[in-house]
Amino acid sequence: MATVVTPPSRWSPDAQDRETSDPAAAANDRAGALRAMHQPGAPLVLPNAWDCLSARLVEAAQLPAVATSSAAIADSLGYRDGEATPVGEMLDAISRIVAAVAVPVTADLERGYRMPAAELVERLATTGAVGCNLEDSDPRTGALVDAERQADFLAAVRAAATAAGIDLVLNARIDTHLAGPDREPGARAAETIRRAHRYRAAGADCVYPILLRDDTEIAELVAAGAPVNILAGNGLTVARLAGLGVARISFGAQLYQSTRAHLAGLIGELANPR
Length: 274
Prior knowledge:
Blueprint: E1 4-6, E2 18-20, H1 23-36, E3 44-46, H2 52-60, E4 66-67, H3 70-77, H4 87-100, E5 105-108, H5 117-127, E6 131-135, H6 147-163, E7 169-174, H7 176-179, H8 185-202, E8 206-209, H9 215-223, E9 229-231, H10 238-243, E10 248-250, H11 254-271
Parallel strand pairs: 3-10, 4-5, 5-6, 6-7, 7-8, 9-10
Antiparallel strand pairs: 1-2
Helix pairs in contact: 2-4, 4-5, 5-6, 6-8
């Protein structure tokens, strides 16, 4: 494999040139491997990480990929969720996680931190992550974004990646069950499926209807043909979701919250010894 010189990013002009053995080809190999892990009925299990240690523990458990949690990273850095973390700090955290493990990493980028598609693709590629989540509600207001507007954004990200020669595994989060209007369940399910089809057509590899809990609705979405990512919890076990044909299972900030609660308990015991 040829040695090439990777120039500084125009968004990171002070970075130094560095010699690598074709990093784009290596990253694209990892992206292809990550995409192939999305198997309906044999789902990719992603206990979301927030730092190097949690990522290494995921890898040590012999899970084949690492996903980040934006909420967990934000809280660990002292920010609230909802794109309150400065984008440079979020990308730096993702970079450290990528460097800590050998498996592919996919990053939670909320709604893209207001970056244009080309900037998002280049800056994400600089971290070494080969996939990302992008959500269809405004992180600041919780309001759903128009489906066509979101599809255009996803298509622009896909086009920017293609133009740059970057293979990117794009997970389109659908927030109809999180931030959607007050609709009858059937209407909300139909809107979720409509968005899934539109986002797939725009270039998404997987759709992620966060907080979708109903077995029948999950099965209907799986039957619609898109690889489906579901948030585990509240009785939605890995085995149950696999049986419904889900291709990817996330845990969001759940592990981080459990770790934080356990640490708080330990510190409380030290502060109030018996």
